[in-house]
Amino acid sequence: MLIILSALFATALLCPLLFRVLKRNAFYVVAVVPAMGFIWLLTKLPAVLASDQSLASGAPNAPPSISIDWIPGLNIGLNFRMDTLSATILLLILGVGALVLFYCARYFKNDDPQIGGFAAKMVAFAGAMTGLVTADDVIVMFIFWEITSVLSYLLIGFSQALITARRSAMTALIITTFGGLVMLAGILMLGASAGSYQLSEILAASGQLVELGASTDVAVALIIVGALSKSALVPFHFWLPGAMAAPTPVSAYLHAAAMVKAGVYLIARLAPGFAETSLWVPMTVGIGLATMLIGGFRALKQYDLKLILAFGTVSQLGFIIAIFGLGTPDAAFAALALTLAHGLFKATLFLSVGIIDHNTGTRDIRKLTGLRRAMPILTTAAGIAAASMAGLPLLLGFVAKEAVYESALHLDAAWGPFALAAMVLGAALTMAYSLRFFFGAFGVKKYKVDPLACKPPTLIFLTPLLVLSTLTLVFGLFPYPVELLSKHWSEAQGGAPDMHLAAFAGFNAALGLSAISVGVGLFFYWIRRRTDTGAPLRRMVTSAEELYRMSVNVLDMAAIWITGRTQRGSLSFYLGVILSVVLILPLGIALAVETPWPSNWVVADHPAQIIIGAIIIAGCVISIAAPKRFMAVLMVSVTGYGMVAIFALQGAPDLALTQLLVETIVLVSFVLALRALPKRLWVGLTRIKWGRALLAIALAVMVVYIAIAMMASREQAPISLQWPELAYYEGFGKNIVNVALVDMRVWDTFGEITVLAAAATGVASLIFAGRGFGRRVRAHQVAPGSIDSGSEAMGATAEKEVELRIARRFAVSSNQDWLMAGNTLVAERRSIIFEVVTRLMFHTVLIMSVYTLLAGHNTPGGGFAGGLIAGLALTIRYLAGGRIELSESMRIAPGMLIGGGIALAGLSGIMPLFAGDEIFTTYAWEFWLPVFGEHKFVTSTIFDIGVYLVVLGLVQDVLRSLGSEIDLLSEGRSPIEQHDTIQASQTGVGR
Amino acid sequence: MSVNITFLVITGVLLATGFYLVLERTLTRVLLGIMLLGNGVNLLILSSGGRKGAAPLFRPDLPADQYSDPLPQALILTAIVITFAVTAFLLAMIYRSWTLTSADVLADDTEDIKVSQSTAYDEEEDSPVAEDTTEFVDEEGRPIREGEE
């Protein structure tokens, strides 16, 4: 079994190559693979027929099976099992598959696009069907089931350029996967109840499962929904006529012989165990017979040959499922024979339609005439098949239908007679549409038809049809081989061994019923011919397809409505929704459950906290109402500096230090970034919006409330009580916070520095915006006094002009170079005092930053603080000497610093691995240095140096982007015109 | 553990003003709001550490519960630096938005608005199509007759 399966899928992979070499004749090569499988299966049949199907897989004399572990944890295995049912359907799949592929070699042209891919999908489909019918694990079966749905979608949509093909493919996919998902739910329910996903075990346990009642009823009903959708029963039937947009070989194979049989197979498989469940009979027999009638009726109304067959297929599938649904051994006997008969005649008919379409260019029975004379062989082959479909004697269709009537006559249910009547009526409709098909395709029309030029098909094109129709005829006369399969399957369910298929079983009730249906069918056909005007019939009721389109439309509208209401494109709206949830959800919980409340309140830990608090609160309030942008920024800074004081008082020197440094750099960044924004953008913003204010206050109260409850909920001693000792004895440092950052919680910090790297990159990309960073400009390349010829000089008053001139002369005469690039700056921008102070402080500050970095393990400080101090040193250089000074003072690009820092930090984590220790293990060495004395080197310092470099790189990136680059963009422009010219300059590529 | 009322009040004001500013449409004010929220949340984390204590610098003679809780401090230290990175990023964004739109506002997403105004009609799904009675048609839909074999 696995060999066929893998051979089919492997062939699919080879197809594109084969077709490039052999063109359409490659179909002949490809057809050999399923043909070989078919022969292999024939050799296996005796073993299958000799086995006892009730035995569990693996027992002696059980049907052949294979079992490979796949996902043992979920109890899912690659289990396959070949019993008579599987083998019978597989004969159809492989046999018809081989013939249809053979047929394709003449159906397609050499220059048809993508026939290689087409063949690959067809062969892969044969593989998927093989897997589906032999799988003995319901999950594996489901996977193959879904593969067939997807392949069907791809094959229906083969003519991608045609909207009908694309649309039908999508409809088929939606319907069949919908059914598939419903079925999956049923499979999982059933598997969970049975405690096994092995199909044979589930069936063996069906007795106990049925006794569970409702849960099994529902599970089985869900599985039936899957089967009905796959086999195109009402109300899912409409996808099948739509699928006729596929090339005709696909219709013949997937939508007549193979894929639609998957649903039949599933019903047949489950019937022996689950026909007793409460929804079984209404869903299989009831829906099946209804489908038979509706399909037959709709077939009578069609003019397209393919649609007549499509609705006929819908009708027949309903019929077969209804018979299997009866659940008795005789019914199984009859239905299996009917399945085979249907596969043979329906494939023949589809293939003959393909030839008609291929050679005449139409399938419309109003245009076709006289084909009987033009294509006599085809007419004979199709005639045999149509007669078999109609249930005329001496053919397999007749034999099978007799057996069906026989089994239905022996039903002892109260609804038995009604079912029988529906079958006879359905058979009459089948007779009528069979005649419509045959005479529509091959007959001479009574109304005037334009003569068709057509050439008869070649013999090789006809071969597959001839084989199939011969089989229909031979098995009709000598049904013994079919009987063998059917009987073996029915005996496994306790069927009597004396059932027979016969070409003529004597004058009995079944024959009488056949005669009635043929007679009534002739009558129906006669009426239809009389009333046929050639115009499409008016539809009397809303069809299922219209319902489907309407529901898809409603779904679309609902999606648009919901999307339009929720995804409004307004960030403020989203934020409002999110914050409202933050407000309402905890509020509900707080009202519903009792929250703990602390007993130990203090007003403040230190009186100064109250004063600082007042300052912070003032800062907050003023920042909202501040009439100028800079004032608001400053007020936010006030709250930040207030935090510094709080941290310092609370016993958190590291925090105080870091916050102080950050606050300072943030203030500088603000001024640098927002200097270009005009004042008018702030107008009217300070009016208080009360709705927002209310929401904000409520949120704040809620968060504080949660905080109080949280603090009152503490039951355990904090984990940080162990930190002091851990820090000192394991991390070799006295500064507990720093050891936490570089050792105990080092992964957090590592994550954080990568975030810093991302932010720095983001800042640079936003400001440089794809213009590239350019080459570094050295101070000596720039004319003195040329940089930042400030906007003050533009449109200045006469008085101001004089002032500037004096300032410039004064500055140029002073040739003291305190800074490397100080004299590149335009005179009015220079401040000698600032330059001198910078000169004095820069190196001192740098040394301090290194000290803070290295001493941070034992005293307040560390990589973050050290990096920020170094960044401040750079900031001072930039502010004093301009952008050239910045690039002179730090010649390494920020990207290098950040990348190097992350690499160093990562390396410090990896190194211990080479010593056989865990990642980020810390070591310490003690040593003595002259002058410096006794010292201890701790390896986590290397990590901290990495942090230092990343932070320094971030600050440098901020200065370079928000400082230098914005300088460059706005240089030489007055504040008013700045904006427009910046925009103009940004549209160009270079700078 | 003791609950510090002053801290709670400061936190509340920082959060309330922060939320208020974040809900505005002016990017600069949103950024200021984020900074206030950052400060407020940092203070909240700090108060969860309990009352003030000795600076968390190890001394062998000091019992562990006499230190100011180092755990919230490690968290806050990280938060301060991250807030700085976020602030820098948003500043760059404000500048970029200013150079592109001459404004400092969060504009509505026009694509989203387009979606909300669209109809359920989809040409692929809903346009009427003629029924074909042959698959042997050329690109314009005219039937072609096979001339080979």
Automatic annotation (TrEMBL), chain A:
It is a multi-pass membrane protein. Residues 72-116 form the NADH-Ubiquinone oxidoreductase (complex I) chain 5 N-terminal domain. Its main location: membrane. Residues 135-422 form the NADH:quinone oxidoreductase/Mrp antiporter transmembrane domain. Residues 694-767 form the MrpA C-terminal/MbhE domain. The chain crosses the membrane at residues 84-103, 115-133, 139-158, 170-198, 218-240, 280-300, 307-326, 332-356, 377-398, 418-439, 459-481, 501-527, 571-593, 608-625, 632-650, 656-678, 690-712, 750-769, 836-855, 861-880, 892-915, 935-955. It comes from the Bacteria. Residues 615-679 form the MrpA C-terminal/MbhD domain. It is found in: Cell membrane; Membrane. The keyword Cell membrane applies. Pfam families: MbhD, MbhE, MnhB, Proton_antipo_M, Proton_antipo_N. Residues 833-955 form the Na+/H+ antiporter MnhB subunit-related protein domain. The keyword Ubl conjugation does not apply. This is Multicomponent Na+:H+ antiporter subunit A. It comes from Glutamicibacter protophormiae (Brevibacterium protophormiae).
UniProtKB/TrEMBL annotation, chain B:
It is found in: Cell membrane. It comes from the Bacteria. Its main location: membrane. Residues 116-149 are annotated as: Disordered. Residues 139-149 have a biased composition (Basic and acidic residues). It is a multi-pass membrane protein. Residues 121-138 have a biased composition (Acidic residues). The chain crosses the membrane at residues 6-23, 30-50, 70-92. Pfam families: Oxidored_q2. Keywords: Cell membrane, Membrane, Transmembrane, Transmembrane helix. PANTHER family: ANTIPORTER SUBUNIT MNHC2-RELATED (PTHR34583). Belongs to the CPA3 antiporters (TC 2.A.63) subunit C family. This is Multicomponent Na+:H+ antiporter subunit C. It comes from Glutamicibacter protophormiae (Brevibacterium protophormiae). The lineage of its organism: Bacteria, Bacillati, Actinomycetota, Actinomycetes, Micrococcales.
